[in-house]
Amino acid sequence: MDDVVPHEQANLRIGVEPAGPDEVIMAVGGRLGSTTAHRLRSAITALLNRGGIRTIGLDLRRLDSIDSTGIGTLVVAQRISAQVGVRLRLTAVSAYAARILGTLGADVMLGLPPARMGTV
């Protein structure tokens, strides 16, 4: 049986917008998993290396799927960001991602306010 996934869902989409003088919002959509997590890792690393940023907000409202590699990437990115003095936090997630992250307790660890979980 072949897995048929629409092209727009097969890839990870990442956009970065300024949200203040030292804050950006990174919108992540599509599939975050073993074949795409390296792209998110690279994007966050580029922001950290750029400097001048104190907060990275992750907007996961358009995330279609996330696997253990994707979750691990978020957790490690949060830890590395904290080590260099940058706050990485979730600003919003899809209902799907909220269920997965909530089950694992990663929603709280990544700073997602309870009222924002599952916003679309």
What would you note in describing this structure?
- The protein has helices at about 5-10, 35-50, 70-85, 95-105, 105-110, and strands spanning about 10-20, 25-30, 55-65, 85-95.
- The protein is of the alpha/beta class and about 120 residues long.
- It has one domain: Transcription Regulator spoIIAA, CATH 3.30.750.
- Strand 1 (about 10-20) and strand 2 (about 25-30) form a beta hairpin.
- Helix 2 (about 35-50) packs parallel to helix 3 (about 70-85).
- The longest helix has 16 residues, at about 70-85.
- The chain is globular, with a radius of gyration of 14 Å.
- The relative contact order is 0.16.
- Mean pLDDT is about 85; it is low at about 1-10 and about 115-120.
- This is STAS domain-containing protein.
- It comes from Planosporangium mesophilum.
- GO terms for molecular function: anti-sigma factor antagonist activity.
- Pfam families: STAS.
